[in-house]
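Board notes (copied after class):
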Amino acid sequence: MKDQVNIGQAGTLESSDVLVFVRFSPQQKGIKIDLESPSEKCFGKMILKSIEDVLNDLGIWNIYIKVHDRGALDCTIRARVETAVKRAQKNKGEQEE
Protein backbone atom coordinates (compact mmCIF):
# COMPACT_ATOMS: atom_id res chain seq x y z
CA MET A 1 0.00 0.00 0.00
CA LYS A 2 2.71 2.40 -1.03
CA ASP A 3 0.28 5.05 -2.34
CA GLN A 4 -1.88 4.98 0.79
CA VAL A 5 -3.11 8.35 2.05
CA ASN A 6 -4.07 8.73 5.71
CA ILE A 7 -6.19 11.58 6.95
CA GLY A 8 -7.32 12.87 10.32
CA GLN A 9 -9.45 15.74 11.48
CA ALA A 10 -10.27 17.49 14.75
CA GLY A 11 -12.19 20.55 15.86
CA THR A 12 -15.05 22.63 14.50
CA LEU A 13 -15.66 25.91 12.72
CA GLU A 14 -17.38 27.33 15.79
CA SER A 15 -16.20 30.63 17.23
CA SER A 16 -13.15 30.23 19.52
CA ASP A 17 -12.29 26.83 17.99
CA VAL A 18 -10.12 25.58 15.16
CA LEU A 19 -10.71 22.91 12.51
CA VAL A 20 -7.55 20.93 11.70
CA PHE A 21 -7.27 18.56 8.74
CA VAL A 22 -4.09 16.49 8.30
CA ARG A 23 -2.95 14.23 5.49
CA PHE A 24 -0.05 11.79 5.41
CA SER A 25 0.90 10.58 1.95
CA PRO A 26 4.03 9.06 0.42
CA GLN A 27 4.31 12.07 -1.91
CA GLN A 28 4.44 14.60 0.95
CA LYS A 29 7.97 15.71 1.73
CA GLY A 30 8.38 18.07 4.65
CA ILE A 31 5.77 19.96 6.58
CA LYS A 32 3.22 22.01 4.64
CA ILE A 33 0.78 24.14 6.66
CA ASP A 34 -2.09 26.12 5.13
CA LEU A 35 -3.48 28.56 7.67
CA GLU A 36 -6.76 30.42 7.37
CA SER A 37 -7.46 32.79 10.24
CA PRO A 38 -9.09 36.18 10.70
CA SER A 39 -6.23 37.03 13.06
CA GLU A 40 -3.46 35.72 10.80
CA LYS A 41 -1.75 39.11 10.48
CA CYS A 42 -1.43 39.47 14.25
CA PHE A 43 -1.04 35.88 15.39
CA GLY A 44 -0.16 33.83 12.30
CA LYS A 45 3.49 33.30 13.21
CA MET A 46 2.59 32.20 16.74
CA ILE A 47 -0.07 29.80 15.44
CA LEU A 48 2.40 28.26 12.96
CA LYS A 49 5.05 27.94 15.69
CA SER A 50 2.58 26.14 17.98
CA ILE A 51 1.67 23.71 15.20
CA GLU A 52 5.33 23.04 14.39
CA ASP A 53 6.12 22.50 18.08
CA VAL A 54 3.39 19.84 18.36
CA LEU A 55 4.64 18.11 15.20
CA ASN A 56 8.22 18.14 16.51
CA ASP A 57 7.06 16.69 19.85
CA LEU A 58 5.24 13.91 17.96
CA GLY A 59 8.20 13.25 15.63
CA ILE A 60 6.26 14.18 12.49
CA TRP A 61 8.35 15.45 9.58
CA ASN A 62 6.24 14.80 6.47
CA ILE A 63 2.65 16.03 6.62
CA TYR A 64 0.14 18.40 5.06
CA ILE A 65 -2.05 20.39 7.46
CA LYS A 66 -4.98 22.68 6.71
CA VAL A 67 -5.97 24.88 9.64
CA HIS A 68 -9.19 26.93 9.79
CA ASP A 69 -8.78 29.05 12.93
CA ARG A 70 -11.75 30.87 14.44
CA GLY A 71 -9.99 32.57 17.33
CA ALA A 72 -8.89 29.48 19.24
CA LEU A 73 -6.56 29.70 22.21
CA ASP A 74 -3.07 28.25 21.87
CA CYS A 75 -3.91 25.24 24.05
CA THR A 76 -6.90 24.46 21.81
CA ILE A 77 -4.81 24.69 18.64
CA ARG A 78 -2.19 22.35 20.09
CA ALA A 79 -4.81 19.84 21.25
CA ARG A 80 -6.61 19.84 17.90
CA VAL A 81 -3.38 19.32 15.94
CA GLU A 82 -2.31 16.45 18.18
CA THR A 83 -5.74 14.81 17.96
CA ALA A 84 -5.91 15.10 14.17
CA VAL A 85 -2.42 13.59 13.79
CA LYS A 86 -3.22 10.71 16.14
CA ARG A 87 -6.48 10.02 14.30
CA ALA A 88 -4.61 9.87 11.00
CA GLN A 89 -2.07 7.50 12.52
CA LYS A 90 -4.88 5.34 13.94
CA ASN A 91 -6.53 5.23 10.50
CA LYS A 92 -3.22 4.03 9.05
CA GLY A 93 -3.00 1.22 11.61
CA GLU A 94 -6.56 0.08 10.91
CA GLN A 95 -5.93 -0.02 7.16
CA GLU A 96 -2.83 -2.21 7.61
CA GLU A 97 -4.70 -4.88 9.60
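Comment from the instructor: The chain is about 45% helix and 25% strand. Strands lie at 6-10, 18-24, 31-36, 63-69.
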